[in-house]
Design a protein that fits this description.
The protein is mainly beta. It contains 6 helices and 22 strands.
Length: about 425
């Protein structure tokens, strides 16, 4: 099934289009401009429909029109594509967009990167690789915009930087500690249209959410109040220094303490997730890390407690915050115990990809090498038993997922493979 939408635009400057909140029945196409007057002509396949909504938003000292094209009523696995046309030309498009709605029975490829929004040369270099990789969706570890999540900087450091990828790939981020510094993440929440999940209070909506895409059940969490959960000593015996503590964020009530709404929601989501799905959790602060900020041990304990209470294994926990790449051995979370007692350090096979049975444990990944100016060096050789691989390099990850296996790859900006692992069940 195909839906073709043609929108005539008035005005020169345009940011987007970018794809948001795609489900198995539709999605959103969003773009912004300084003087847009959209007029839509459409050819819609059977059972498909669309609607336009335009709002005025404030960006710096200027007013801007933000247009949201909602496509609804299509079938799973449908391909949607369209063109945005200037009124001076009905032949040459200003821009094009496309996306495919998820099919519950189809394999999935997704991209992952984080800590990217510095507008640095390294971010631009890596963006060229990200923009040419194809995927069903992309996810982000947070810190979309440095230094403070300012609305104006989204233009250059996000919308323009990743325009080719964003125009064809649904994008699902989480909030980083830098994103939240401007008006409690108001610019982030304005830019992104994320899943609104039943049971989440209105003031928490889009800060954490879940969705299913093929064989994946995805949980995006808000880790910005993790400080109160963090112990002064991790269970591997390392002291947590004051200078490395997570930045204190005022006036934020989201946390993962067991009495919090986010924690209770997480337990319910894990317990009700489809049995056939892989469970992937995305959050900004890393539950396990060997570098500058170290492990957020309280987050690890909260995820372990939620997994035990729900009776559901978590397959992958992926995060950012540290500007590097780290990947653990499989770690048993389904029984109480020390996170530094990995289930296996061998895997199967001497060459990449190493292969592990999913039953061996949970994989913890840090992928914060998206272009932040300062890079950290992981320490796999300093007596921390759980870390299997670490790289001080900018990178993007890609995952290939079907109902029987996950192949994960970490690739640097020169397209050199840094890590590759297959998880099977």
């Amino acid at each position: 099934m195909m839906i073709c939408v043609f929108a005539a635009l008035l005005g020169a400057a345009m940011f987007g289009p970018y794809i948001q909140n795609v489900t198995d029945t539709g999605g959103l196409v969003v773009w912004e401009g300084e003087d847009l007057s959209p007029v839509v002509r459409a050819v819609v396949a059977p059972n498909g429909e669309f609607a336009l909504k335009a709002d005025t938003v404030r960006v710096g000292d200027d007013d801007r029109v933000r247009v949201r094209l909602a496509v609804r009523g299509v079938e799973p696995g449908s391909h949607v594509r369209g063109h945005l046309l200037d009124t001076d030309s009905t032949i040459v498009p200003l821009s094009s967009f496309s996306f495919t709605t998820p099919d519950p029975d189809a394999a999935v490829r997704f991209l992952y990167f984080g800590d990217s929004g510095s507008c640095s040369g390294t971010q631009r270099t890596l963006s060229r690789l990200i923009n040419k990789l194809d995927a069903d969706f992309a996810a982000h570890a947070g810190d979309v915009i440095y230094p403070s999540g300012e609305r104006k900087r989204y233009d250059e450091c996000f919308l323009a930087m990743y325009r080719p990828m964003l125009s064809r790939t649904p994008f699902f981020p989480v909030i980083g500690n830098h994103d939240i510094r401007t008006s409690d993440a108001a610019p982030y929440l304005e830019i992104f249209d994320l899943p609104i999940v039943k049971g989440i209070p209105e003031n928490h909506r889009e800060r954490y959410y879940s969705f299913r895409w093929g064989p994946i059940f995805w949980l995006a969490l808000d880790s910005n109040d993790a400080l109160e959960m963090r112990d002064t000593q991790c269970s591997d015996g390392r002291e947590v220094s004051d200078k490395n503590r997570y930045e204190t964020v005022k006036n934020i009530s989201l946390e993962l303490r067991e009495e919090s709404h986010q924690y209770r929601w997480l337990v319910k989501e894990l317990a009700s997730a489809p049995a056939e799905c892989w469970i992937v959790i995305n959050l900004h602060a890393p539950p396990l890390s060997t570098t500058y900020h170290e492990s957020y041990c309280g987050l690890y304990k909260a995820l372990q407690a939620a997994s035990l209470e729900a009776g559901r294994k978590i397959d992958i926990v992926i995060s950012g915050h540290e500007h590097d790449y780290q990947r653990s051995w499989p770690i048993r979370m389904d029984v109480p115990g020390d996170q530094n007692d990995p289930a296996s350090k061998k895997g199967r096979g001497e060459s990449w990809p190493m292969e592990f049975d999913a039953a061996e444990g949970t994989f913890f990944i840090v992928s914060g090498g998206g272009g932040g100016r300062k890079m950290f060096r992981p320490s796999p050789d300093e007596g921390v038993a759980w870390i299997a691989r670490g790289e001080k390099k900018n990178h993007v990850m890609q995952f290939f997922v079907d109902d029987r296996s996950i192949l994960l790859q970490s690739i640097d900006s020169r397209e050199v493979l840094l890590d590759q692992v297959r998880i099977v069940r």
